[in-house]
């Protein structure tokens, strides 16, 4: 019931973010790309939705996601993670980095769409503790970065108990 409405909302907010990023954002310096400022974009996979990165300076950053989470169930998820850059390297015109982090995601789902399990009508909730590991590609001449992330996690799901899962997502962000 609430999932189609949420998907439309994420789509509209994503379009607004892209338009704002393309036309209204000053270009960052190369040093700012990797460690400072903020970036907003889209993540596709699990989760699929809006993705924001907030540089804390140096090798530290926070990542926030709001979107649709597919494993272990179709759900709306809101997550925050702390990431630490473990390795930085340059390939051509990109400054790339490997990162490792820790965080969590709160999920809300409708029992009626909870996979193959039969449940009574209602809404369920879960919490997923995640350990993301990823690579990020920061383009030196344009304010865009791309990322690919693998995040194993342990979820606590109402009505089911514990679930081990592995999220995989790819995405892009406009840096401002």
What does this 3D model show about the protein?
- This protein is an alpha+beta fold and 176 residues long.
- It has one domain: Porin (Beta Barrel), CATH 2.40.160.20.
- It contains two helices and nine strands.
- Strands 1, 2, 3, 4, 5, 6, 7, 8 and 9 form a nine-stranded antiparallel sheet that branches.
- A hairpin with a 5-residue loop joins β3 (60-69) and β4.
- The longest helix has 23 residues, at 2-24.
- The chain starts with a helix and ends with a strand.
Q: Biggest sheet, open or closed, and with what strands and sense?
A: 9 strands, antiparallel
Rg calc: 17 Å
Measured as a percent range, the helix fraction is 10-25%
Order of helices and strands: HHEEEEEEEEE
Q: How far is the first residue's CA from the last residue's CA?
A: 35 Å
What CATH first level would be assigned? Mainly Beta
Q: Count the strands?
A: 9
Structural class by helix and strand composition: alpha+beta
CATH architecture: Beta Barrel
The total number of structural domains is 1
The global form is: elongated
CATH topology: Porin
Which oligomeric form is depicted? single chain
Indicate the low-confidence ranges by residue numbers: 25-31
Can you give keywords for this protein?
single chain, 176 residues, alpha+beta, Porin, nine-stranded antiparallel beta sheet, elongated
